[in-house]
Every structure is written in structure tokens, then in C-alpha cells.
Amino acid sequence: MQNNKFLELNANENSLGMSDSAKQAIIESLGEGFRYPDNPRAALISKIATIHGVAENQISLGNGSTENMRAVIQMLQHKALKEGKAFQMVIPVPTFDCAEMYANSIGVPVVKIPLTAENYDYDFDELQRAADDFDGISLLYICNPNNPTGIITSTEKLKNWVSNAPDSHYFLLDQAYLEYVSDPSFESGIEWLKQGLSDNLIVIHTFSKLCALAGMRVGYAISNPQAIETVEAFMSMDNTNLSGAVAAIATLNDAKFLELSLRNTNQSRQMIETVLDDLGLRYLPSQTNFIFHEIKGDLKTYIDRMRDNGIKVGREFPPVTGFNRLTLGTPDEMEVFIKVLKEFREKGWV
Predict the structure, then answer these.
(1) How many Å apart are CA 195 and CA 159, to the nearest integer?
(2) Residues above pLDDT 70, as percent of the chain
(3) Taking the complete model, does pTM exceed 0.85, yes or no?
(4) pLDDT at 288
(5) Cis omega before residue 40 (within 30°)?
């Protein structure tokens, strides 16, 4: 790699870059930068509501979906304190760790349940047991598809669990990679909300992945109106900046870009699956813009060697060992990665 520029395949960003329509919308909005973003925020909420078929008062915009995550945790901690109850969060591991980080920062106990050893799926029995055995309020964080594994969990099992859970169990369902899912068995938690499946379900989503707006920090939560009103009390004011709001609206209106973005990722996934098959390296069936694949040899050494070759790949995700998470960049970027990976095989490193 030249000019000390790394190929960044480590953060699940969309290296296709934001759409031209989003860039143009930002430029055109700069003249309004002295005003608060009330109107663009309202327009974005309306657009999201239309797309998902929900009411506008079922949506809470976040400064990235991680803000929605934080607010839900704080809301439930406040509820527990107010009612004189204990509060815990239950998470599978490994998974996206921002919810755990927020919980740790405010003293909320976090119970970690390892994924199943045979297929790296959620251990429903143990997750549910951790909540059932707790005398208080439990928040169960479920990322589906999961990060870093990239796989989806059983819709039937998850839906049955959510619909039959007691009032003291809350579910924070992170669907950051929703648009990449191609498995026909998958059902979005947003549909469950529309069916009135549970009053304790909050679904979060982001514009950071398919829409390629990670730097704009725009996400949202969807739930029933009462839950959203309660969560909103813990959100910062005017938390969606003008540029992020207009860029998100422009991208949602840009069907050609969204099709290109999805096609780009699907092509890159096929390229990586082909080379991993050729090299005999196991990988999990990704429903995301990354792929979790086997590495034969020491993982830290592999990560360092990739970096020495100008490529950043994912970190370690304990307790899972021997697997690395690779962001699916553009097909051109995948060509560079494949060349280096094949060189590693020739040297006996993978």
C-alpha cells in the first residue's frame, strides 16, 4: 500500500462512500446551518415512519443508534430505582459491545452468556435462565444479525421468547444490518411491534451501514408510543445534526444508490466466500456487510501481519478463538485483500 494509507476492513463501514445525492443535500443545507435542525429532523422521522409503516410517535432519532442504546439502558435503570427493584443487562458474547460499555459506565451489572459452541448461535435457554433467575428488571440485548458472527438467529425462537416474556423482561433488538438479510426465514422486530407482540420490545437501527453515513451519526429506535416517550426523556436535545438529517433523507430517496450499495456488498461477499472455500478456511453464513472466518495460526499475529501489509482487519472477539471478522469493502478492495491472503497461504501463515 502506498502513502501509508491503510485498507480499513475492520469497522464494518461502507467504503463505497456516501451517495452523491447525500453529499449534494449536505452542500445545499449549509446555508441553513445557523438554524436548529427541527424541520429536517421532523422530515426524517416522517420518512422513517412511512418506510416502516409505523406512527411518527413510535420513533426516536439518535446521534447514531448507540445513543438510543444508552437512553434505553438509562431509562430502565431509572425505572428500577423508582420502583425499588434491581436491574441487570443480559447479553450474549461475543456481540456488539457498546450496550455493555454503557451499562458498565453507570454501574449496571452485565451477565454474559457465551454463544453455542456448535454453531455460534444464541444460547436461548441460558439467556432466558439468566433473566428468569433474577429478581428484578432484566434488559436483554440481542443483535440480529449478530456482530461479529454475521449470522441470524431463529425468528421462531426469538419471536416466541419475546412474546411470552414476563413484564420484567425488556428486549433491545439491534438490527443494524437489517437491509443485508436475504434469508427468507428472517422477520424484522419492527413487524412484531406492528403486531403488538410486546410492550417491552425496542428495535434500533442505523444509517451507518447500507446508507454509508457512519460519520453523520444518525440512528433511531422504534417501539410503542409510550416506550418512546419514556426513552425520549433520556435523549439529548437536537441530537440529530442538520447534515446528518438531510443526508439520511436524500439516501433513503436514492433507490439507485441503495441498490448499488447492496449489490456491491453481495459481490464482495461472494468473492471472499470463493477464496475462503479455495483455501479451506471455514466461515459463518454472513447476512451482513462483514464475514467471520477461520484463521489457522495465531490470530494476533495474523492481524499484525495484515497491518504490516497495509490492511486493517477486525480485532479478537473472545471467547470465540481462531476466527477473524473481515469488513466487506468494495470489490476492488477485496481484490487487494485476496492477493495478500493468498500470499499468506503460500508462506504457510493461514
Answers:
(1) 11
(2) 99
(3) yes
(4) 98
(5) no
